[in-house]
Write a structure and sequence with these properties.
Radius of gyration: 21 Å
Number of domains: 1
Order of helices and strands: EEEEEHHHHEHHHEHEHEEE
Oligomer: single chain
Strand content: 15-25%
Number of helices: 9
Structural class: alpha+beta
């Protein structure tokens, strides 16, 4: 927190209902959960498949996250297998990164996107997918995704959303077809037939704004429920007294197991904003739900493209599990899913397929009771 990279929290916003008219914000620059993947221009990809069972993976989140030091639009897509036996397997998850350079943007984007520019969202930007500073009053994504107060009227919010976003079904995984009309028809047919999680917009807030709003009652309730399921000593867990971050954390000596301590720390931190479904902090520190392997840092593979180290970028939170809705009774369960990406955010010249990054999955501690 203090002195480190800022932490931004993703919250579920309004449902994405289509069709809606095209607006100034491209579909690939929309932060969302569920639905189908919208790839940046010049990038094509088929639906990834589970390396464990072969099923098509479902999109969990799409995050638009350009970086200040790179002249690129940048998006990350996280996919998972809905088969229960695959939930905890790393091979059943994929995170794909795709980028689109400003030079390409100027050459090929149409007039509807001509005023859209990438901005850093971790240091100088106030939102995910910030608009060009040349027209701040008309910055649509700032109203939807920025660190502003939520609109007071649901009708006004719905009206803004419909003006800002493209029709969801028209932007499924792009087929390998050079004819735009045919591609659109095929994409729509695939989107209609393949099961997906219901899409919702993702809004963003700064965790710093929640620091003075710690809901200890909510944290205590969750911990008591956890105690009953795990048969752990709540008094020992609650005897820990936190006095700061990092090396300043102190707790009374006890025989509390390390994974109990880690879980308590996790629950205490997220109790400031229990509805968070995503935590973003480029090159920051993840929040583990159970004690991670001692050698995790050494086991994170280098970038397969340039060989650079990978850094933490964001993680999915357990609240997301209950928000994944579908008409096909699909579900995915996890404790937290942590995404590490290339620290250089490399991108080969004229590359047309997403680059795979590293994902680390921690199961919900409760799942151990059923195995």
């Amino acid at each position: 927190m203090a002195g480190g990279p800022p932490v931004l929290l993703g919250l579920r916003d309004a449902a994405m209902a289509g069709p809606v008219p095209a607006g100034p914000l491209p579909a690939w620059a929309t932060n969302k959960l569920g639905g189908t993947a919208d790839w940046v221009p010049a990038v094509r990809a088929g639906p990834p498949r589970c390396a464990r069972c072969g099923r098509a993976l479902l999109l969990l989140v799409q995050v638009y996250c350009p970086l200040e030091r790179g002249p690129a639009h940048r998006a990350l897509h996280v996919f998972a297998c809905a088969a229960p036996r695959c939930w905890g397997a790393a091979r059943s998850w994929k995170v794909l990164r795709s980028q689109y350079s400003q030079a390409q943007d100027e050459q090929s984007r149409d007039k509807q996107e001509s005023n859209f520019a990438a901005k850093d969202w971790c240091e100088d930007a106030d939102d995910w997918g910030a608009c060009d500073g040349a027209e701040p009053p008309a910055c649509a994504s700032l109203e939807l995704l920025g660190l502003k107060e939520a609109v007071s009227s649901e009708v006004e919010c719905a009206s803004q959303l419909q003006q800002l976003h493209l029709c969801e079904p028209a932007h499924g995984p792009a087929p390998q077809d050079t004819h735009p009309a045919a591609s659109e028809e095929i994409a729509m047919a695939v989107a209609e037939s393949a099961p997906v999680f219901q899409p919702f917009y993702i809004n963003v807030v700064d965790e710093e704004d929640y620091m003075g709003l710690l809901d200890t009652d909510h944290a205590d309730k969750l911990l008591k429920e956890y105690q009953q399921r795990e048969c752990v000593d709540l008094e020992q867990m609650m005897s820990e007294s936190f006095a700061g971050e990092g090396g300043n954390e102190k707790y009374e000596k006890s025989e509390v197991k390390s994974w109990d301590y880690t879980f308590h720390k996790f629950m205490k931190r997220i109790s400031m904003c229990p509805e968070q479904i995503l935590r973003y902090s480029w090159d920051g520190q993840p929040l583990f739900i159970t004690c991670p392997p001692a050698n995790l840092d050494r086991d994170i593979p280098a970038c397969s493209n340039c060989g650079s180290s990978r850094v933490f970028e964001f993680q999915l939170m357990p609240t997301l599990v209950s928000m994944l809705q579908s008409d096909s009774d699909l579900s995915v369960e996890f404790g937290t899913v942590i995404v590490y990406t290339c620290e250089r955010s490399c991108w080969p010249t004229n590359h047309q397929t997403p680059l795979e990054e590293f994902i680390f999955v921690q199961e919900d501690p409760d799942q151990r009771l059923f195995k």
